[in-house]
Amino acid sequence: MKKQITRSWVPQFSIAVFQLPLQQICRLLLFLLILSVKSYAGHPQNKEFRGVWIATVNNIDWPSAPGLPVEVQKQELKELIERIEHLNLNVVILQVRAASDAFYPSETEPWSRFLTGKQGLAPSPSFDPLSYAIELCHAKGMELHAWFNPFRVRNIGHYLLDPKNFAAINPQYVHEYDNKLFFDPGIPQVRNHIIKVIMEVVRKYNIDAIHLDDYFYPYPIRGKKFPDQKTFRQYGGKFYPGKLGDWRRENLNQFIGTLHDSIKSVKPFLRLGISPFGVWRNKSDDSDGSPGIKATTSYDDLYANVYLWLGSNWIDYVIPQLYWEQGNRFGDFAGLTKWWDEHCFGKPLYIGQALYKSTGEGKVFTNPMEISEQISILRKFEHVGGFALYSAKHLARLSETALNELSANLSPILAETKENMAPIPNDPQITPIQKAEPPRERILMAENKSISDTINLVYQSVIHKELTIPEQFSVIRFQTGRKLFWKTPPGIGNTELKFSVIIFEPVKGGGYLRRVIQTTDNKQIFIPRKSGFNSARVLFAIVSVNSNGEQSPFSKLFRIRGKRIIYN
Fold first, then answer.
1. How is 256-318 classified by DSSP, letter by letter?
2. All structural domains of the chain with their residue ranges
3. pTM above 0.70, yes or no
4. Which of 28, 51, 194, 483 could serve as 91's disulfide partner, Cβ 3.0–4.6 Å?
5. What is the pLDDT of residues 367-413, one digit of tens each?
6. Which helix (H) or strand (E) holds 212?
7. CATH H superfamily, domain 464-567
């Protein structure tokens, strides 16, 4: 009966449609079109993340040598991105800050030595590599993620730093270790500077994501200690002297949390991604860790607690570097992929692969199909949405067999889908892991830092430029009509600056949400009731803004109790 109704309904409907006036038919077709668009928009196709890193440090991938003519640099980058497109890869992760330098015109960092041959020397004729790369990628429908190495000052080699380099101006913030130079992450001014560097790119460029790699504290060298003992004494607080590792991790927690808040305050849609070392912790040290022989870890050796960052919602995607082959006793590819799949807190997860180990004199993978087979493996996991290959130049160095296999596996239409993939065979060497629980580690503020100091650090990292004007604004009174009055600093005319009130509202789980209310004039402001002005936990500050949109440091934080102003 049901089939008969269905069969007879179609022709009757068709006849009815053709008997309608033309205007009604057009309206009906338009209605059906809108329905189909809404249906499609509600069920977008899954797009596999297919990334590739372009490393600029030491001219690993691009440019091929420092100081090349600009036209040669452009042609090399164009050919590299065309090769990436040809293999149906769709995300370029371009290293724009390799070692306290810049591959774009910057107000905070000198031009990179790896671009022009001398740090601080601008390309001639004028050339903005980051802008050019964005243009190339977006024209091909590819994403461009701006890749920053946060704490490295100088890689292998003893070239001169530009005199305007933040490290050259502040040598007390820099340590030599492993024949390289590194910023000390334990110094607040260092973390704040790096965030300002990143925020400059966030504001100026139409990038698709901010990307950080695995270099936080430097990789350990046997028998050598990273020389941050003085910093530890100065800033260690309650961690000093017995909890050096916890203190280092807290420094990076503050850095990542502040960077996240800074980015979201300017471009809430912009993603922040991390590519950590592939092992978070060893299972022999932590029940939540991954199986395998005890070796280097992100948590214990680089002090990067990416597990906490994921659980705290500070990062938008993660690309663990699983640079081992299948069956490796230190880090089996399938076993580690399984661990990350079960510990990513539902965040977008992509797998970093060691393409370089398949090519050249130093190749480690004996199986020419290793990379392609790994891609097939990672597609079987629920939360894994793709991969990233390190690095771009090796795409041209693959053997014919490996290249053909990889090309077939990267066809626009995948032969395999989530629905028809066979499950991974049970491996008795891989211990089943429970689903991840939220991190047990508490999100801490810096020792001996008030709420004011902590918020100030966050705020100073997102302002465009600090104006050299007095910090303090004298708050006169707060009326029950929700009007806040203040006096301008001495010597500042009312017509020179505009003023705003910043409201810091506490959010669940810790931290504050920053909102700005602009003034109607320069001596008072009306605060909307929805701002929660009468809450004892809400904090306020006043800033000035000049005609260029540059903001001053804000006044001392205060709370409002009835008609009283209480400074924090």
1. HHHHHHHHHHH-TT-EEEE--BS-S-BTTT-TTSB-SS----HHHHS---HHHHHHTT--SEE
2. 49-409, 464-567
3. yes
4. 51
5. 999 999 999 999 999 999 999 999 999 999 999 999 999 999 998 85
6. strand 209-212
7. Immunoglobulins (2.60.40.10)
